[in-house]
Amino acid sequence: MKTLRDIGEDALIERLIKLVPQASGAAGPGDDCAVMDSGNGWLQLLKTDALVENIHYLPQAAPRAVGWKSIARVISDFAAMGGMPEHFLVTLALPPTLEISWVEDFYKGIGDCLETFGATLAGGETSSVPAGSSAVISIAATGSVRKEHLILRSTGKPGQTILVTGTLGGSITGKHLDFTPRINEAAWLVRHFKPSAMMDLSDGLGKDLPRLAAASQVGFILDEKALPLSSGCTPAQAIGDGEDFELLLTMEAKRVSALLEAWPTVFPDLPLTPIGHLVAPGEGQSLQGGWEHFS
Amino acid sequence: MKTLRDIGEDALIERLIKLVPQASGAAGPGDDCAVMDSGNGWLQLLKTDALVENIHYLPQAAPRAVGWKSIARVISDFAAMGGMPEHFLVTLALPPTLEISWVEDFYKGIGDCLETFGATLAGGETSSVPAGSSAVISIAATGSVRKEHLILRSTGKPGQTILVTGTLGGSITGKHLDFTPRINEAAWLVRHFKPSAMMDLSDGLGKDLPRLAAASQVGFILDEKALPLSSGCTPAQAIGDGEDFELLLTMEAKRVSALLEAWPTVFPDLPLTPIGHLVAPGEGQSLQGGWEHFS
Q1: Residues B170, B175, B180, CA angle at the centre, nearest 5°?
Q2: CA–CA separation, A258 vs A249, rounded Å?
Q3: Of A39, A122, A166, B96, which has the highest C-beta tally within 10 A?
Q4: Which A-chain residues 105-164 have CB contacts (< 8 A) with chain B?
Q5: Is B101 in the A-facing interface, judged by CB distances under 8 Å?
Q6: What architecture is domain B161-279?
Q7: What is the CATH number of domain A4-24+32-148?
């Protein structure tokens, strides 16, 4: 019998979505958020995410940081679509032996992040897991984006430049728990230099760039020497580590120099780096590395 | 150090909601769904829920039934508010050793239930759990209700009659996996005999009736002899078993006889039974039994 480990997450999702009635939204499954028309020039974004103990965080991690991370991951997905977060639902499956103080500190971290990005808690649900099972934190949220600001990952074109915010690699040393979702940067981009395609880097460039290219039905060529490396990281780590939560975007080549001139006047502390370009489908390269959920 | 087992779910939620910015919706935390104003005579309902392996279903349960249950539980909450379901997000935290066929059959059950109730899948997320951990299924969904049809659990008044649909108790023998959420019954009620308060029975009458009374700041008197018992069940089981997924509602006493006359002409196969009445706060009785999540 085939198991999840045998086929991996992307192939699993491809099989599953054929089995149920799909919402006729503006974005198909596979984008960072689901997109529903609100009928007045606005689109509603819907997103769900999960954090699993011993997979996404360790039991000894500071609960307040885990709370921040759980919300920030979802806000990063709203940023990737050019939108803003609104209302959050928090679902907790926790062992009965967990200390109350852990859950309270976790919620303080949730509050920190919601407040920082102007979002609110709308509700939640708690359940127990059997003794010995890992805790599971699931976050669902609504967001919004004006129709003309929506960015998909499926709309990149051959010849366009690939860029990335920040530096890549080494998030496990700390950044994965206290990163800042690039919501302000995305909001500026959609207004001044709207990318042709965008997504956030959660599973690592090695996993996510091929996803963007596949969704856009194009190939890509990565300039490994150009990669903005986090301090002490190799290119292989920048490609494979995952949990960077930076923006990966594509843009018409002729607009890139103006973008790179304007960017540091608005975001002086955050690099924006061209790292390659899209090419015709079937051309270009492949990439190894990145996070595989069921390996 | 105090643990979740020491205080239970309701006290935990009361502590947590003070720690984060709350959405200013039409219903506070503690109702079946969160309620957001859509600004055009409609309200958006938001709901999240979790099913945990070995808690809400056993590994040997038919996956298609587990899929149905995961969606039907949430639709039951929309029914409880007088609303209808719209878009669903499915978050799965699964062991890598799970067979693909299990997940596919589970998704078929999700599809069955979405199709039956006119809802759609908008997106989802999958993650792994460590070997030996229970699988966790989390469902988030949006729904809608016209402003004038919204029913809360906090608006019951002393003197009003308490009624319940269906029969209670013994759901573990099968009903908990293949129940029909009372969405049609709720839609008829809000249009013809709008209840003063309503909720769905998920944790058992012994847990949920005190919740409705507390939210409405009233007491209650239950007529145990009047309880509609499922075949072979005792009153203690009807009060304590949980997972009935019937509607618990309250109504002005003078409208009850007309309701009981009209009901069987529309729903001939489903009992609707008066089981007691609300009384002034501080009066009435208490109840034992029902499902405690962290015991």
Answers
A1: 135
A2: 15
A3: A122
A4: 107-108, 110-111, 114-115, 119-130, 132-134, 136, 138, 140, 142
A5: yes
A6: Alpha-Beta Complex (3.90)
A7: 3.30.1330.10
